[in-house]
Amino acid sequence: MKIAQIAPLYEAVPPRLYGGTERVVCHLVNALVDLGHEVTLFASADTCTRAELAPMRAQALRLDPAPLKSDLASHLHMLGELRQRAREFDVLHFHVDLLHFPFFEDMAQRTITTLHGRLDIVDLPVVYRRWNRYPLVSISRHQRKPLPFANWLATVPHGLDASTYRFEPRSGDYLAFLGRISPEKRPDRAIEIARRAGLPLKIAAKVDAADATYFEQVILPLLRDNPWVEFVGEIGDAEKSAFLGGARALLFPIDWPEPFGLVMIEAMACGTPVIGWRCGSVPEVIDDGTSGLIVEDLDQAVAAVHAVDRLDRRLVREAFDVRFSARAMASAYVAQYRRLTDQKHSSGGAIAQETALCSEFA
Asked: Lower CB count within 10 Å: N or C terminus of the chain?
């Protein structure tokens, strides 16, 4: 098949440092190429991919040092270029939320839109009712809950290329927190868990401008008061295997409706179990008692730190290989691409609204 993949322009594909959506797009695109498909990736020019690259911006937005730049203009330019080339492709696969909705209505039947973010936002229902012909893919069942009426085609969990992550069979002597410093990610909980469990904590996270005040007023004082906590800062793929693989467990103490939680499967790829809050997608991603432990409060989390060594790290990695490989993700998407093209040929392009899942979570 000839497939266009449309990535956000905020990060390179894959991101140089922190980044979720663009990292998933990278692993999906490469796996589709390995499966024999012709893939064109619309992304920033500093992208590294096995697909044909359609460069839409010289550098991804976040690390571009230019003092004045427009994310809206950049993405509109990309959608305009895609519109001109749309007839070249069997399927257009969007990863830019809903930005493309007004521009591709006449070909919505051969598009897929993967929604990567939270959907419990007050302005979203009216949009998904207005543009209801676009087939949508969720990344967890929980993500769908705010918009049960939407035109859901499938649920496809994220996947990653296993070769990017090195398996570590031996448990380390510290706890890890990886991702972003923000109130909903609850690094303060992670610090308290480590303190009560009596183990060092390493935090590898970026601090967005929007969260700078939270970092300075809430987290920095905790770092000064707790010498066993090390703030590593933002890391990229090259450092993740050592950081995650060397940990006894990854702490995922979230306090928001997490749509997926890519860091959980990154840890699993290294053989490191996850201690996650029963919130959002966590129960769908973690096999409780196999790839991690699901908790509901601080006491349970501290107990889990002392119990997690009983988990077999080989089974943690096996859970990743079975459920969250890039090939599994790509194969699930190919099944949906074929549904679109088959229905287009058989019924003139009408896509029936369905809620069947193409990849059931355990």
From this structure: C
Does position 122 have pLDDT exceeding 60, yes or no?
Answer: yes
Q: Strand 136-138 vs strand 111-114: parallel, antiparallel, or unpaired? A: parallel
Contact 248, 309 (CB under 8 A): yes
* pTM of the predicted model as reported, rounded to 2 decimal places: 0.89
Cα distance between residue 202 and residue 221, in whole Å: 16
Contact of 319 with 287, CB cutoff 8 Å: yes
In the predicted model, what is the mean pLDDT of residues 217-244?
A: 91
Overall average pLDDT of the 54-61 stretch: 95
Inter-CA distances, 98 with 38, 113, 132, Å: 25, 8, 11
Beta bridge partners of 251: 275
Separation of alpha carbons 309 and 106, rounded Å:
55
Q: Rounded mean pLDDT of 328-344?
A: 92
- Count of beta carbons in the 10 Å neighbourhood of residue 36: 8
Sheet holding 38-44, edge to edge: 52-57, 38-44, 2-6, 91-94, 111-114, 136-138, 152-155
The pLDDT tens digits for 90-117 are 999 999 999 999 999 999 999 999 999 9
Question: What is the SS3 assignment for 70?
Answer: coil
Q: Which two three-digit tokens encode residue 271?
A: 């053989």
Q: What is the DSSP letter of 211?
A: G
| pLDDT computed for residue 209 by the predictor | 87
- Please name which of 203, 243, 195 lies closest in space to residue 219, comparing C-alpha atoms: 203
Q: Which amino acid makes up residue 280? A: G
What number of H helices and E strands is found in the chain? Answer: 12, 13
